[in-house]
Here is the input.
Amino acid sequence: MKNIHVSTTVNGDELEFVCAPGETLLDSLRDRLGLKGAKEGCGTGDCGACTVEMNGEIVCSCLVLGAEAEGADLRTVEGMATGDKLHALQRIFIDEAALQCGICTPGILVAAQTLLERNPDPSESEIRYWLAGNLCRCTGYDKIVRAVQSAAAEMRGA
Amino acid sequence: MVAVTLWGALRDQADGQEVVEVEASNFKELLDALEASHPGLKPQIERGVSVAIDGRVYRNSWFTEIRPDSEVVLMPYMKGG
Amino acid sequence: MNFPAKTKRDFKVVGTRVARPDGVDKVTGRALYGADFSVPGMLVGRILRSPHAHARIRNIDASRAEALAGVKAVVTAADFGVPEDAALRDIQDNCMAREKALYHGHAVAAVAAKDAETAKAALKLIEVDYEVLPHVTDVDAAMAADAPVVQEGRADETVPEGSGPNVTMYTEFGHGDLEAGFAKADLVLERSFKTEATHQGYIEPHACLATLTGGRGELWCTTQGQYLVRELCAGILGMEASQLRVTASEIGGGFGGKTTVFIEPVALALSRKSGRPVKIVMTRSEIFCATGPTISSSMDVKIGITRDGRITAGEATLRYQGGAFPCETVSMGAQAAFAAYDLEAVRTYGWNALTNRPKEAAYRAPGAPVSIYAVESVVDELCQEFGLDPLEIRLRNAARDGTKASYGPTFDQIGLVATLEAAKAHPHYTAPLGENQGRGLSCGFWFNFGGNTCVSLNLNNDGTVGITEGNPDIGGSRASISMMAAEELGIPYDKVRTVITDTNSLGHNDVTDGSRVTFAVGLATIEAARAAIKVMCARVAKIWGIDEEAVVWEDGHAKPSGPNAGDFDPMSIEEIAAIASETGGPIAGHHEVNAEGAGVSFGVHLADVEVDPETGATKVVRYTVFQDAGKAVHPDYVEGQMQGGSVQGIGWALNEEYIYDEDGRLQNAGFLDYRIPVASDLPMIEPVILEIPNPGHPYGVRGVGETSIVPPLAALSNAVSRAAGIRLHELPMSPPKILKAMMSKG
Here is the structure.
């Protein structure tokens, strides 16, 4: 089958790529657009390392086809910082050591960003359930949950 | 002479002795002396052994000093994760 | 100048919580992991794996695959030699089956093709003629005299005659008169335990990119040790080390599982045959079927205790299986089992048996979690029998300085009692519990290692410092290394940058394992800094025209040692660097060492759980970790090790297991069915760091990476026992097992 031409918006930039009909959005982002921030940890939607935001919803990009990105508005970890200025979540993840190996970090940051845009003051339990689809094997989640709480407080101006 | 404590499974290879005495002033001399006096220990020594000298575990530093009054315990060569 | 051993000192950088140097790359998605690197002309490699648990490979016909358009190479075991060294041969045979497929998922052939689709299609065209053989996956079944034989002739000289055909080793540790010890007890309990294999569960798949043309190789891969990868691959492919350069990518978790090779020799062989770079990335299902897991076990433990709580004797028999190749992990389990206790009579016996399962790979404190689980469960049950406080009983019987360890040597400067005292004093220990809740306690232990290490430290012309080291940074170690260099040099942390280099740029470094990096690389870094300080002091002595011995180094400056040395203004590191060219050339320090004296590590965990009487599901509601770090260089990352290891142990205790069907096929080779803990399963994990300096390190550092996975298994089992009134003797304690036990109790 022929490749498909896709026009989409990624982190505010209008971009085009071609992809195979069966190709995942994750592979399109990584291999066609060179955005390697989203990672493949399982390929079955169980680990969340490939999390990106698509039309305001967080998705496992390994479960979405590249072709489905036609006309979509995508946000990835590469779009979180503004120029040289890190997003509060990114900065606080570093300051509070919320990552060890860092492989799950892009997915968790994207998911957490969407959470805080919807709910500026989530409880610990809300954070834990929101991030339940993002596996981290290094940290035990403690410092991740605390970093999201700290970022939420800072973003609220508390 | 240095008294070397063997772990249980090695005793069958050393005529049933728990403690063997050898002439050695460092780790390497200890291994050589053990092989010479108890050839049955050779396969394990070749697979790898550590030695605890006065409570500290050394994995393979030949020239680690052993004093005559040191407590010397042979241990399997170990690896972590 | 001289460097006195100082373990108690006022630290300026060490002990602070600075930002890690690789942080920005990792939060912006720029950090390059194993699968993130590509080169022009690259092929995609894929591996064909055995659908059978045990089968003789009668023939492999790859002609149809080779004929498929876009396929550039196919390799099988026939493309490799047969290494003489047994350990290397086993590693190679695990990468590519020779003669027999030994477990479900064992690699039998590999393809390199122009793209993934073609490679996948080619795998389907490879015809393997299997003769399916009887198989065994359970450790007890594998020990039996009439068990299917996994491999012939693998028993070493320690195995007694008359043992089953799969037994590969026997070991025994301990001292004292067991019979007399048990005779002194008021109660002797004997219990049998079983634990299932678990996987390290790193989120990043194994991935590599290999080029091997004209006899020269370049390999990029995710690994805990690029030097070991070079050694193994060069051995397997018959190359000299100088001809293969290995660069470690950023590593997305390892926990011991990335201390060997699986796909790297295969990718190199495919590249050699095709003449093109070849990239292989494992799928998650391949990772579960053919990498990792830890051992599974069957154990018997017998412990005697007096009515007032003195343990009189302890005995444990451990049977481990580590897959289809000989595995010595049981010897570490047998040494660690009773390490927390001061016993007059103790004996552990260890057996290893081959099974039709993947080759065991190290997993955090290999061997120790399960044997200590069994011992700590029986100690807890004895406490329950006599109504004794489990923490007091641990204190009463704890190993301390001068105790003859259950594995032989006499302990020197260990922190177990201090750790137990800290747990006793913590509010968690006496906090009230709710309905269906229970509190469990367990001690844990790990040896910790040092090992071969090279560090090179270079002074830049502006007085900043570059450090080159060879151990992949798996949890923030670049920060700790920079901190120790800054501390020793007396300069700010942000003046130091540490990078991890390839195999051509430094001498041999052992793998990032055994909790060794902060200890051993830190030690080498401090020594490298001292070497550079000596050079700087010598240069300044020449400028001032005084003796080298009359110059001291303080706070980033060379200073006269006292009034007699002369009256000179201190020279800063920046000033010294700026004129290095004029005073003799570039300034550097380096250190190469086989670091010994790592110092053992103890931990104590407190766990509160709530067991749902309707479902048997266990929820951890409070968790506190007490551990001796010697000196916490970067407390955040020490805490991170304590928290992360605890949660891996919690997963091991409650949910994680390898499930095989009757055909020996792995049934849960994915994160959906092999369930590691997720954020909503857990409470905060409170870390309490103790600092009892390790005399073997200039700053007193002890490794902290492994001990934390050890105590959760028994801590949770003991907590469940107190919450639900039932004691399981197997792991994991998944909800159906707990519910069944609760229902049969009535």
